[in-house]
Structures are given as C-alpha cells and as structure tokens.
C-alpha cells in the first residue's frame, strides 16, 4: 500500500478543518453589524405605525412599496426596522442569560472539581436534580409570579441553564488540578481560592469561549420561543419571537409577517453554530487530530 496517499488525505482533512467558515463568519458579522448600527440602518421607527399602509407586501411583490422593502405588519410598522431592532433585543437577552447561568455554572463547577469528595458529590447531585426539572413548567411558574417580561426570561433561563456549564467546567477542573503548576502553587503556599481563580480558571477560558459562542444560537431560539408563547418580550418592544407570534394569525394572507423573522433566526443561529464549531476546532488541539 502507498502510504503517501493516506498522508495526503490526512493532511487535506486537517487543512479543511482549519479553514475559516466564511458562511458562518459572514452571518455572525452581518448580525453584529445590524446590532451595532441598528438606529442608522433602520429606515423607519420600528414602533411607529402607519394605518394607511397596513399589511403591505414586500417591495418586489405587487402592491408593495419601496419605502417598506420587507412590507409592513397589521399596524403599519416596517418589518425591516423591527427585524433590525429585534436583533439587538435577541443578542442582549442571550448575553444576559449566558452571564447569569455561566457565572453560576463556572463557580459550582470549579468548586466541585477542585475540592472533590463530599463537595463534589453534593454539587453534582444537586446538578442532576436541577437538570430533571421541566424547563417550560418552571418558566410558566416564574411568569405567573413575576409577570412576562425580558427580566423574567433572563431569570428563568439563568436559573435553569447552569447545570451544563457546571458539568463541563468540573471535568476541566478535575484534569487541571492534577497538573504540575497546581502542585507547585500549593507548595508555594497559595490559598485554594487563589489557585482556583488565578491558576485554574485562566486555563478554562478557551472552553468558555466555545460554550458561549455555541450557546448564543441556542438562547436566541429559546428566548424567541418564550416570546412566541407570550412569556418573554412584551409589546411595544420588538423581538423576533414576538413578531412570529403577532404574525401567525395572518400566515395564509401575509406570509412575510412570519417568514422574515424566521429567516432572521435561522441566519443568526446558523452563523453562531458554524462559528462556534470552528472556534472549538481551532482552540482545542485534540479536535484537529480527529
């Protein structure tokens, strides 16, 4: 057998894995540009209606207007402007939720992995119990107490989402605490808290970057789902899930009311997922050898 063929194929596969995903980067870049320059890009006020131009189709369809490129909703509000402002809400909610449950998960994971024994057992059993809680039921319970709002979405997802981070960070910590630099830090008299946050934590930042990148897409879908069910963002604020909810009754007569928010969610989620996979392969040397 000519092993040079095998080597060539292996090298080609490695090179392919390290290629930058232009599609994912483009989608994420477009999303971030819209978020950053939303007020400048939006052609109309997303909250101001025009009762003369209600349910206008997109500009390329008969009856459409170039003033409203993607059409208008039942209150005469510009769909494109609402999509642009909805991107800001989606990213804000995603980052806020990740900050809440990421912080909880990282702290518990580090404590469980570093101290082990009883601390590890208590935290992991509590994690298992929390993962068994039905998310939708918890969401409904919190909404009934706090009322539907963006704050409620952040609280619900923040409280329910930390177990995944705790498990992953615990595994990383169990591996890192056996490294020589941790042993040397103990010999040097460093406190446990200093070892955890000054020596171990910096070595899990790559893992956190991957988790956050992949989670943004997931949270966008989840927050949109809650808004669609009436548990999240409330009018007059604009949110992609809320736009879907408001347009579902007109899906047969005004397809653009639900199609464009759905496409926006698809582009954002696909972009972050593809980019997250590439970041994982780039930051984790083990992934490159698979």
Protein model, in words:
The longest helix has 37 residues, at 79-115. The protein is 71% helix and 0% strand. By secondary structure, the chain is mainly α. The protein has a single domain, classed as MetI-like (MetI-like fold). α4 packs across α8 and α9 (180-187) runs antiparallel to α10.
Q: Taking Cα atoms only, what radius of gyration do you get, to the nearest Å?
A: 23 Å
Output mean pLDDT. Answer: 84
Residue stretches low in confidence (pLDDT < 50, at least 5 long) are 1-17
**Secondary structure category:** mainly alpha
What general form does the structure show? elongated
What fold name goes in the CATH topology slot? MetI-like fold
Helix content: over 70%
CATH superfamily: MetI-like
Tally of individual helices: 14
In terms of DSSP E residues, the strand content is under 5%
Text of the CATH class: Mainly Alpha
CATH architecture: Orthogonal Bundle
Number of domains: 1
Order of helices and strands: HHHHHHHHHHHHHH
Secondary structure layout plus pairing:
Layout: H1 3-18, H2 22-36, H3 38-41, H4 79-115, H5 117-131, H6 135-146, H7 150-160, H8 162-176, H9 180-187, H10 192-200, H11 205-228, H12 240-247, H13 256-283, H14 285-288
Key terms:
single chain; MetI-like fold; mainly alpha; 290 residues
Summed up, what is this model?
By secondary structure, this protein is mostly helical. 71% of the residues lie in helices and 0% in strands. It has helices at residues 3-18, 22-36, 38-41, 79-115, 117-131, 135-146, 150-160, 162-176, 180-187, 192-200, 205-228, 240-247, 256-283, 285-288.
């Amino acid at each position: 057998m000519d092993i040079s063929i095998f080597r060539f194929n292996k090298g080609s596969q490695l090179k392919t894995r390290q290629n930058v995903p232009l599609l994912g980067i483009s989608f994420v870049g477009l999303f971030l540009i819209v978020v950053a320059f939303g007020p400048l890009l939006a052609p109309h006020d997303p909250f101001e209606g025009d009762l003369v131009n209600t349910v206008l189709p997109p500009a390329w369809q008969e009856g459409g207007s170039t003033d409203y490129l993607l059409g208008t909703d039942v209150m005469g509000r510009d769909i494109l402007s609402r999509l642009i402002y909805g991107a800001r809400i989606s990213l804000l909610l995603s980052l806020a939720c990740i900050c809440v449950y990421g912080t909880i998960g990282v702290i518990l994971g580090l404590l469980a992995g570093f101290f082990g024994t009883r601390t590890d057992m208590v935290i992991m059993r509590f994690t298992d119990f929390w993962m068994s809680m039905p998310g939708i039921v918890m969401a409904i319970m919190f909404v009934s107490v706090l009322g539907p709002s963006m704050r409620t979405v952040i609280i619900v997802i923040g409280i329910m989402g930390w177990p995944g981070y705790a498990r992953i960070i615990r595994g990383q910590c169990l591996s890192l605490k056996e490294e020589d630099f941790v042993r040397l830090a103990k010999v040097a008299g460093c406190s446990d808290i200093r070892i955890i946050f000054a020596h171990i934590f910096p070595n899990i930042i790559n893992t956190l970057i991957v988790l956050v990148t992949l989670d943004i897409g997931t949270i966008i879908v989840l927050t949109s789902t809650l808004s669609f069910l009436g548990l999240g963002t409330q009018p007059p604020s604009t949110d992609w899930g809320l736009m879907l909810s408001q347009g579902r009754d007109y899906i047969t007569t005004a397809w653009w009311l639900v199609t464009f928010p759905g496409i926006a969610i698809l582009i954002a989620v696909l972009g972050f997922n593809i980019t997250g996979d590439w970041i994982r392969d780039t930051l984790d040397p083990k992934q490159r050898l698979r």
